[in-house]
Write a structure and sequence with these properties.
By secondary structure, the protein is of the alpha+beta class. It is about 45% helix and about 15% strand. Strand 4 and strand 5 form a beta hairpin.
């Protein structure tokens, strides 16, 4: 509940649903915003202050068995007693949050949500729509100047976090999460340049169900995230990828077709 926000995304499918619903001809310029080094830069004390403010305003979030003051003490104790070993020496972390700690993830999410909600609320010219997933944000703007203006406003609100911005490529497309948005607002799967197309090899000691789930999962992602004009290309790419990972062609086509048939009979038309 503390990290709940109307701009927070659940996953790529949630993003695609919101993006499609928010398309506006007056806001045709899309940009993604990224928090640099979120977990090591985030001011955890400010995040704790935000948590306490939310608990004060929403007392129903606090169990009768513990007080807000006790929660604050536990948070501060956990953050102030984070140690790590390097080169046979022990160090105490004094800024940011410990990497790998679920507490760090939750507090960083609270901090980012608070900053971005404040930015949208106080901006003299906010984006048409804005949403984020962990440290990645996405907005609908009128043009590049509008996007850069919002970036400056966002960065003026926090000294601990710094946002960078990614504008559309020369061809007009822009990636967000694992989705590539084309100039005509159609979508396809985005892979980073460093992506290797390596998955669990068919000859590995993994269980058959695990290997089959690779085929089913990536086929489902293609069906859910690709526009109709890009789906066939993605499915051809997946077939070639599975072949390169040792999967028998007959098994690939059987699993992919079975997955697609199931999705087509269970997915409601939009």
């Amino acid at each position: 509940p503390l990290t709940a926000s109307n701009i927070r995304l659940k996953n790529s499918e949630d993003f695609l649903e919101r993006f499609s619903a928010d398309i506006d001809e007056q806001y045709p310029y899309y940009c993604s915003l990224d928090v640099k080094s979120l977990y090591t830069s985030c001011d955890m004390q400010k995040a704790v202050d935000t948590v306490m403010d939310k608990l004060t305003k929403n007392p129903e979030l606090v169990s009768e068995e513990i007080t807000p003051e006790a929660i604050k003490s536990l948070l501060i104790f956990s953050l102030d007693n984070s140690y790590f070993e390097f080169n046979h020496k022990f160090f105490r972390q004094i800024s940011g949050g410990p990497m790998g700690s679920p507490l760090t993830v939750a507090l960083a999410e609270v901090r980012v949500s608070d900053i971005e909600a404040t930015a949208i609320r106080t901006s003299p010219d906010p984006p048409k729509s804005y949403y984020h997933f962990v440290d990645d944000g996405f907005g609908h703007f009128r043009n590049s100047d509008h996007a850069n203006s919002f970036l400056m406003h966002l960065n003026s609100l926090a000294t601990d976090l710094e946002y960078s911005i990614e504008h559309p490529r020369p061809d007009g497309s822009i990636p967000f999460l694992d989705i590539n948005i084309h100039p005509d607002n159609s979508t396809s799967i985005y892979r980073k340049p460093t992506h290797t197309n390596l998955y669990t090899h068919y000859s590995s000691a993994a269980t058959s169900s695990s290997k089959e789930s690779v085929v089913r999962t990536l086929t489902r992602r293609a069906f859910k995230l690709c526009s109709s004009e890009h789906l066939d290309n993605e499915l051809h790419h997946l077939e070639a990828t599975f072949l390169s990972n040792g999967y028998p062609l007959q098994k690939i086509r059987h699993l992919m077709q079975k997955t697609l048939d199931h999705l087509r009979t269970t997915t409601r038309p939009s």
